[in-house]
Specification:
Oligomer: single chain
Shape: rod-shaped
Largest sheet: none
Helix content: over 70%
């Protein structure tokens, strides 16, 4: 009888540990995806800010007559290439149901930003004043984009917190089952 009780207890403990391990793996995968999404939103914002600073500096120099057309067009080409590299990275922000609207809005603001900032850098060599106006409008789209990526980051963080709470409750439940 004692051996039977020990085998049953051992089976219950083993079963609970297996369930805890399985849940942990599932939650770990989801947490890793949310962490990656959070990092992607942060990197995207940083990269877009760097483009904004580059364009602002170039426009200031163009307005002051400190750069020639060739230098401005090299910046324009660099901006076009940088933005082309950023666009596919918008996909890294998707796949979280709670923030789907924020991702769609961020995509639209990014596309608007891209078009305006490319126009601004294209105009910089010949019309710095109007290029600056375009860059200002692009800056407004950048701000809107940043608001959306902040919502994406908040959504990912909140999802992580909910999963951590659920995991803690589940762990407590399994511990109670093992004790009883």
């Amino acid at each position: 009888p004692v051996l039977l009780v020990m085998l049953v207890a051992g089976g219950i403990v083993f079963s609970s540990i297996n369930r805890i391990e399985h849940e942990y793996r599932l939650i770990s995968v989801a947490q890793a995806a949310d962490t990656a999404r959070l990092a992607a939103a942060t990197r995207f914002n940083q990269d877009l800010a760097a483009i904004q600073r580059l364009v602002a500096s170039t426009l200031e120099q163009a307005a002051a007559g400190c750069v020639d057309q060739g230098q401005v067009y090299r910046v324009h080409t660099a901006v076009v290439n940088l933005l082309a590299g950023l666009e596919p990275r918008l996909l890294d922000l998707e796949n979280l149901q709670e923030i789907n609207d924020a991702v769609k809005e961020a995509r639209q603001d990014f596309l608007t930003y891209r078009d305006l900032i490319i126009t601004a850098t294209d105009m910089a060599a010949i019309d710095p004043v109007n290029a600056t106006r375009q860059a200002f409008r692009a800056g407004q789209s950048y701000l809107a984009f940043s608001e959306h990526t902040n919502r994406i980051a908040t959504g990912a963080t909140e999802a992580m917190a909910r999963r951590a709470e659920a995991q803690a409750r589940s762990f407590e439940k399994y511990v109670r089952e093992m004790v009883v």
